[in-house]
């Protein structure tokens, strides 16, 4: 009984010091479709982007460009949602192929790398990686999440 109590205390303490408010990125299922273009997103894991809502629901995208189309016109794609419902935004780091915080990512525009939907914002967790990518792939501009505008996204189509 004593071991059980110690284990419970250990679990409780672990939960207290665990990072609050972090959601695990979603792994795309074969049936998951991008709400913007209708493509099956599991076919494009290297470009997967996602929005996780506060209620645990999520939306998956075949690239960052479609994520931003959704973000800038969320009511068009889901009338029951607004931006305040979004808890997390994840994008896939181009070099590491791991989910990263989309709001903190660095994005390269104008490179010679195309995503599933053509011209794309290429995300990186580290600024140094983004700058290296720009040199290697003729990137033109390096921006952050808050620098992305609807007009910029329209210009990628």
Question: Which key features would you list for this structure?
Answer:
157 residues, three-stranded antiparallel sheet, 5 helices, disordered N terminus
Summarize the structure.
The chain has 5 helices and 9 strands, in the order αββααββββββαβα.
Describe what you observe in this structure.
With 157 residues, the protein is an alpha+beta fold. It has one domain. The protein has helices at residues 2-17, 64-72, 74-77, 127-136, 150-154, and strands at 49-53, 58-61, 86-92, 99-101, 106-109, 114-115, 118-119, 122-124, 141-144. It has a four-stranded antiparallel β-sheet. A three-stranded antiparallel β-sheet has the order 8-5-9, with helices on one face. A two-stranded antiparallel sheet has the order 6-7. Strand 1 (49-53) and strand 2 (58-61) form a beta hairpin. It is globular, with a radius of gyration of 18 Å. The N and C termini lie far apart (64 Å). Residues 3-20 have low confidence and may be disordered.
- Total domains: 1
**Low-confidence residue ranges:** 3-20
Structural class: alpha+beta
- The quaternary organization reads as single chain
| C-alpha-based Rg, rounded | 18 Å
Number of strands: 9
Write down the overall geometry.
globular
| Average pLDDT rating | 88
The termini sit apart by 64 Å
Number of helices: 5
Which strand-content bin applies to the residues?
Answer: 15-25%
N-to-C SSE series?
A: HEEHHEEEEEEHEH
Q: What level of helicity do the residues show?
A: 25-40%
Main sheet properties: 4 strands, antiparallel
Q: Spatial order of the strands in the main sheet?
A: 2-1-3-4
């Amino acid at each position: 009984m004593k071991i059980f109590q110690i284990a419970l205390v250990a679990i409780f303490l672990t939960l207290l010091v665990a990072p609050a408010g972090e959601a695990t990125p979603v792994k795309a299922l074969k049936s998951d479709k991008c709400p913007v273009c209708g493509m099956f997103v599991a076919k494009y894991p290297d470009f997967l982007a996602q929005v996780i809502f506060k209620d645990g629901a999520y939306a998956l995208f075949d690239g960052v460009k479609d994520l931003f189309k959704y973000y800038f016109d969320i009511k068009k794609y889901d009338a029951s949602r607004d931006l305040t419902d979004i808890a997390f935004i994840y994008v896939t780091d181009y070099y590491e192929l791991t989910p990263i915080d989309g709001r903190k990512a660095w994005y390269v525009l104008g490179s010679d790398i195309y995503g599933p939907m053509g011209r794309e914002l290429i995300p990186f967790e580290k600024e140094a990686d983004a700058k290296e990518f720009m040199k290697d792939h003729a990137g033109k501009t390096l921006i952050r999440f808050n620098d992305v505008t609807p007009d910029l996204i329209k210009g990628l189509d």
